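My current task is to audit a protein record that another person submitted. Thanks in advance; the entry in question is below:
***
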Amino acid sequence: MNFNIVCIPGDGIGPEIVAEAKKVLNKIAEKYGHNIAYKDILMGGASIDVYGEPLTDEAIKVAKAADAVLLGSIGGNASTSPWYRIAPELRPEAGLLKLRKTLNLFANLRPAYLYEELQEACPLRENVVSDGFDMIIVRELTGGLYFGERSTREINGILTALDTLSYTEKEIRRIAVKGFETAMKRRKKVTSVDKVNVLDSSRLWRKVVEDVARDYPEVSLEHMIVDNCAMQLVKNPKQFDVILTENMFGDILSDEASMITGSIGMLPSASLNDTKFGVYEPSGGSAPDIAGKGIANPIAAILSAAMMLRYSFDLENEAGEIETAVKQVLSEGYRTVDIFPQDKSQYGVVKQVDTETMGSLIAEHI
């Protein structure tokens, strides 16, 4: 098969981890007889430095023409970077929002899985995670507060900021369908998260989700208020299968879920539209404090590449082989610094490696 993949290395550790994901993809292509053509485009701070804006229309055209997009990370240190001394609509994150909206990437899938080998890195008590957990957060990505009208103005002599949260029935329905379809391929349980006791948008959310649920009688549905969900994620994470939620809640909960796996550097994500097209990226940020040091964890980027093979190209065997290779390397005791154990009794058994070595080890297990 022939694939055209657009790569957006981005900022911070992005170029380092994308390089390792490409290394693993190339090994898969070699083994299975696929041909991959890559084309890089700029987004985020890297694009601001060259073009004065975080994502150009030309870059969007290139991304649209691809089969899928592999994204590293964007942004920098908000307190020190000149990228954050310009208008908000020109800052790095605006490029990501533009990409999502322009490409209609309404569904964000973020798995959170605790590897047996990394239980010691999990911040939760051993009795809470002794059986591990395996969930996926299905987050609506192009609506809600992040895309609503906003303004800052003076009202009655007082400076006032306004952000608008709105959802249409159509927007809720399509992400709910994605959530239930995802559950059908897993353990057939959906936890829909909202703030129905306060927000009209949540009341509509719950109504539409319940309507969609009627088409999936095999899937059990429960509703959970967002603050309770945040608590339950650290109290009993293994209760969750598919968490279905809106944009801002999903943003917060997915970062919480990623940290209880031991490191945000372990978790991939997929942002999908209503075709096979998707943008695949690690759940973590650009980590400017460690950029260029060769210590970033590339596993999330590599697993994002595996999600690309599964969701955009229907290559389940190839995706599974990458995931198995990651587990094998972890079982052999290789760790980047973010997942290196604090327990000194593990020293000598567990070996710390840099970004490039971790990518090479995973590629060698393909």
